[in-house]
User: Fold Thaumatin-like protein 1b from Cannabis sativa.
Amino acid sequence: MASLHQFLFLSLIIPFFHFFKGVNSATFTITNECSYTIWPGILSGAGTSPLSTTGFSLQPGESNSLQVPISWSGRLWGRTLCSTDPTTSKFSCVTGDCGSSTVECSGAGAIPPATLAEFTLNGAGGLDFYDVSLVDGYNLPMKVAPVVGEGTGGNCTTTGCLVDLNPGCPAELKVSSASVESVACKSACEAFGDPQFCCSGAYATPDTCKPSSYSLFFKNACPKAYSYAYDDGTSTFTCANANYVITFCPSPTTSVKSSNGKYPEAAEVSASSRKTTPYLIGFGVLGASWGFRQLFI
Assistant:
């Protein structure tokens, strides 16, 4: 009889442990499928405690799992072509650098251009809000995937930009290094500073700020990623009680070739992906990715 009581007790209590595990934290598994080393950076949003690390290295094929607390908001990105100056001992990267002079970003964000994964956990309606953004430009292919079977609400859609945009980046947006012709692709806002590209000034509303030929370069290649500030309907996703896998250079990764002058074929965005949520990343009325980015300035 005692065994039966113990069984009944455990059958009741174990689900609660699983429930509270999901509520108290999520696991972010960050994986490098690139053929070269990357250095992920992490920035917590205003009013959100930093994670146990704000920057580290990942060799090809390597992963790192982090526990992320409830209601955390922040962004992740990858840094490339990093090195330590032998004279000053300062650490720096050609793309995605955070300017901290160390591997840890310590509260500093990515210097554009950089592909960003943005999260708010346990936001409006208890949902996680997440996206992959090219609003600040592009440097690496990236995918964000809720762990299958663990999400319990929202559309729990995999999102990202799986295409290498650097080879086909328009010349006026291209970032080059001493050894590589194209290592990143700027946004038109960063390249030109024009309010119509930055959705600022007279263009600071969805009615006045429209897609440009430059934002369409990003959107045609990566239809689920943010391409400009008011690109919300196909770019913000929700899930609940999920863990997430963030993958750099996910397979298969294709390239935009500059030789043919054409955009790659874009995968169709499913109807469930086209829902416009009433909140952006859990912060106020859905207006723009730009509004979320101001939390990190």
About this structure: The two ends are 62 Å apart (CA to CA). The chain has one domain: 25-248. The longest helix spans residues 2-24.
